[in-house]
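In response to the reviewer comment on reproducibility (Comment 2.3), we provide here a single inverse folding case reported in full, input and output, so that an independent group could reproduce the run without further information from us. The C-alpha cells appear first.
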C-alpha cells in the first residue's frame, strides 16, 4: 500500500547520492526519488525526522506536516550521519532532535507552551527542556513534507479533514505511531492549530484515543499565524484549566 509508513532504510541510496552539504534547494530535494505519493497539485515527499518514536513519552505534540525547512534539515543531517557511518537507529534519532519543529517555529512553540505552564506537569523549569528529555514525542498528522503547488501545505487548502487522499496518510501513520507509545491511554495530546485539532477529535471518535486526552484550543505557533498571540491569550485560561485537570499518570 502506498500509505504504509516509509523509513530511512528505503531511501539510503537516494540520500547518499546527494552532495554532502548543510543546505539543499527545492530543486535538489523535491525530486521523484524522494516522492512518496501525489494527487493533482498535492505532493508528499520523504524526510527522516519522523522515523524515530519516543516510546516513553507522556506528551504527544502533533503538527500538520513538516515544511521544507524541516525536510532540508532532516535530510542534510541524515546525509552527514551516513557519511560518518552512524547506525540507522542513531541517525533517525539525530534527525528527530535536529529537525522537529525547527527554526522560529520551535521558539514560538516553546514560548507558548511556557505561557500555559505545560512544563509544570512533568516537573521541568521550562518547556525548552522538553526537547532534551524523554517526556515528549513530536510528530505531524501527515508525517512527511507535503506541498501544494510546491508550497508548504498548511492544512486548509484543501481542507485536511475533508481530503480523502491526505486523511488516508494521517490515519495510517498516526495509528502506527500510537501503537508504539507506552502510555497511549494516558498520553496528553497537544494539537498545533485548529486543522490538526479537528483531525485529532475525529481520530478520538473512531477510538484511537479518548477525546479528553486532547488539549483543546492551542493555536498553531507558526509565524504565518499572525493571530497566534491573540488566540493564545483568548484561550489561555481554558488551556491552563485543562492542564490542571490532568490525572495522576501525567505527572512524574
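Designed residues, in position order:
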Amino acid at each position: 500500500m502506498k500509505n504504509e509508513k516509509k523509513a530511512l532504510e528505503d531511501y539510503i541510496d537516494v540520500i547518499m547520492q546527494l552532495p554532502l552539504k548543510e543546505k539543499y534547494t527545492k530543486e535538489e530535494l523535491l525530486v521523484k526519488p524522494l516522492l512518496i505519493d501525489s494527487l493533482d497539485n498535492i505532493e508528499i515527499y520523504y524526510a527522516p525526522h519522523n522515523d524515530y518514536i519516543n516510546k516513553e513519552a507522556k506528551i504527544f505534540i502533533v503538527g500538520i506536516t513538516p515544511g521544507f525547512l524541516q525536510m532540508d534539515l532532516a535530510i542534510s543531517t541524515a546525509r552527514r550521519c551516513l557519511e560518518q557511518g552512524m547506525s540507522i537507529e542513531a541517525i533517525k534519532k539525530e534527525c528527530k532532535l535536529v529537525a522537529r519543529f525547527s527554526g522560529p517555529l520551535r521558539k514560538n512553540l516553546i514560548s507558548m507552551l511556557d505561557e500555559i505552564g505545560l512544563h509544570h506537569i512533568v516537573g521541568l523549569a521550562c518547556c525548552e527542556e522538553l526537547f532534551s528529555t524523554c517526556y515528549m514525542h513530536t510528530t505531524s498528522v501527515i508525517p512527511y513534507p507535503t506541498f501544494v503547488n510546491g508550497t508548504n501545505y498548511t492544512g486548509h487548502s484543501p481542507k485536511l479533514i475533508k481530503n480523502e487522499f491526505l486523511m488516508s496518510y494521517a490515519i495510517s501513520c498516526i495509528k502506527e505511531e500510537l501503537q508504539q507509545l507506552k502510555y497511549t491511554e494516558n498520553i496528553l495530546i497537544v494539537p498545533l492549530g485548529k486543522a490538526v485539532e479537528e483531525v485529532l477529535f475525529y481520530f478520538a471518535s473512531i477510538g484511537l484515543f479518548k477525546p479528553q486526552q486532547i488539549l483543546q484550543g492551542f493555536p498553531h505557533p507558526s509565524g504565518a499565524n499572525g493571530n497566534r498571540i491573540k488566540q493564545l491569550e483568548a484561550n489561555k485560561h481554558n488551556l491552563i484549566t485543562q492542564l490542571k485537570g490532568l490525572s495522576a499518570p501525567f505527572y512524574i
